[in-house]
Specification:
- Helix 7 packs across helix 9 and helix 14 crosses helix 15.
- Helices cover 31% and strands 19% of the residues.
- The chain folds into 2 domains: 245 residues, Glycosidases (TIM Barrel); 123 residues, Immunoglobulin-like (Sandwich).
- The chain has 17 helices and 18 strands.
- It has an 8-stranded parallel β-sheet. It has a 5-stranded antiparallel β-sheet with strand order 9-10-11-17-14, with helices on one face. It has a 3-stranded antiparallel β-sheet with strand order 12-16-15, with no helix packed on it.
- The protein is an alpha/beta fold.
């Protein structure tokens, strides 16, 4: 039969419709309106929920003084100085002089030892799957050659025109992209002492924030735009919906970019790509979320923090496990010094986390929250820190290995992947141990990650009873937590 070389109109429409539907299924052709009802329906790129662990980096002119009283953020040095915090002012006057301007720190921020490839290798060795760098903090200094930054302050106020005399953002982005990690940028919406911010906030948004964000995104094409400093105005005043519509519809990363929830004083845990917490002990959400915190208290490097102010590797790993079992990610911060060196204690902690991940990462990466996030031992389960953040990382030790008298511990954390269940144990018990509510198939295999031996088990009314011989303790290297892998579980 002879056929026309041209498609019929009906066939063309059918093919176009199928193609367009398929295109929409991957989120690549959808158009988003500048309102939360539309923006919040955008799917989150799948890699984020699989990643579980990222590295936050706070670095800028505040890394020169690198000082704050314990329990305060060193990256807020300019704010403490200008708001007459007695301790910060006394320190500043003694070390730099009473009339020494914060803006001089831009010249002293040299980054002479900055080796972005080494940074990237270290973060990859830690088991991180993504990196978020402070492209600009509340002091307005940009770590890339941005004209708005210097124009606003009528002085060189970016990393190419002063200090390092190099594009710090580009260098790290290039290094990270040589690995399998994703690259994101923190960006502060407001700036404490930007003259335009102080005189005309509407013009600040239109003439400073919008062009600056578009410059950052267009030049460096991030996987994440991590907003902060949003609490001074509503999302309407920030024009956040309009900015996100540009990100999702027109930017060069419209198909892959994702954002957090810090887009106005009324948006946290309500709108945005994923929710964020900060120094929170526990959190649950019906949406992907992320906890951010420092290894000590400060995000920026704080020379005033001592060894005892840093969380141990055990504490950090147990925090990660607690967060992942609750469906979240951990964004753990490091603060390099002004020369670009990551403090050795931070390097050590990252490598210790990475060593644990090499054995137990199967129970972290790509997992999802199970029907039970964890199980309690006998005792009271209402232990809480005195106030949020006041306990540092000790809250997780109190909830696991060092309880106060009369209080229960989380003796097992659960994650799942397909028909596989993982029970992560802060302590490895000897003898009989019950995993409550676990219903395994008859052909299920139970083993400890890091060991080739299988674990004997039996079904009981309350769950799965394991038999852990004492010699396991001698065969396994001591770990901050141990993972029991159970295959072929029943999901009900």
């Amino acid at each position: 039969m002879n056929r026309s070389p041209f498609l019929s109109i009906g066939t063309f429409i059918l093919i176009f419709t199928l193609f367009n539907t398929s295109f929409n299924a991957f989120g690549q052709s959808a158009k988003y309106e500048a309102n939360w009802a539309s923006l919040d329906n955008r799917p989150l790129p799948g890699w984020f929920e699989d990643a579980k662990f990222g590295i936050f980096i706070h670095w800028g002119p505040y890394s020169v003084p690198a000082w704050a009283p314990k329990g305060m953020y060193s990256e807020w040095y300019q704010y403490w100085l200008n708001n007459n915090d007695k301790r910060v002012n006394e320190h500043h006057d003694q070390v730099y002089g009473k009339d020494y301007s914060y803006y001089n720190f831009g010249d002293l921020f040299k980054a002479e030892d900055y080796k972005p490839d080494d940074w990237a290798k270290l973060m990859e060795a830690a088991g991180a799957k993504y990196v978020v760098l402070t492209s600009k903090h509340h002091d307005g200094f940009s770590l890339w050659p941005n004209k708005e930054a210097s124009k606003a302050y009528s002085r060189p106020w970016n990393s190419v025109e002063t200090g390092p005399k190099q594009d710090l953002v580009a260098a790290l982005a290039d290094a990270v992209r040589k690995t399998d990690m994703k690259m994101g940028f923190y960006y502060s919406l407001f700036e404490w002492y930007n003259p335009l911010w102080q005189s005309d906030k509407k013009r600040f948004v239109d003439e400073h924030l919008f062009p600056q964000v578009k410059d950052l995104v267009t030049k460096y094409k991030p996987d994440i735009l991590w907003a902060d400093g949003e609490w001074e105005m509503s999302d309407k005043d920030w024009k956040s919906e309009e900015l996100l519509a540009w990100l999702y519809n027109e930017s060069p990363v419209k198909d892959k970019i994702m954002v957090n929830d810090r887009w106005g004083k009324d948006t946290r845990k309500k709108h945005g790509g994923y929710y964020t917490t900060e120094y929170a002990a526990d959190f649950q959400a019906n949406k992907p979320w992320e906890e951010c915190r420092g290894m000590g208290f400060s995000f920026g490097f704080n020379k005033n923090e001592d060894l005892q102010d840093y969380n141990s590797a055990q504490t950090l790993i147990l925090m990660l496990v607690n967060i992942v079992s609750s469906g979240g990610n951990l964004l753990l911060d490091i603060g390099p010094d002004a020369n670009g060196k990551i403090p050795p204690i931070m390097q050590e902690r990252l490598l210790q986390i990475g060593a644990w991940m090499k054995v137990n990462g199967e129970a972290i990466y790509g997992t999802r929250k199970w029907k039970n996030t964890f199980q309690w031992s006998a005792g009271k389960t209402d232990w809480q820190p005195k106030k949020e953040g006041s306990e540092g990382g000790s809250y997780i030790l109190k909830q696991t290995v060092d309880p106060d008298p009369g209080y229960a511990v989380k003796e097992a954390f659960f994650t799942s992947k397909g028909n596989n269940l993982y029970a992560i144990l802060p302590k490895l018990p000897v003898g009989k141990f019950l995993l409550k509510g676990v219903n395994a198939q008859g052909n299920a295999k139970v083993k400890l990650l890091g060991s080739n031996k299988t674990i004997k088990w039996r079904k009981v009314a309350a769950g799965l009873e394991l038999d852990l011989p004492a010699f396991y303790l001698n065969e396994l290297a001591e770990q901050p937590a141990y993972t029991v892998h159970i295959s072929n579980i029943n999901k009900n």
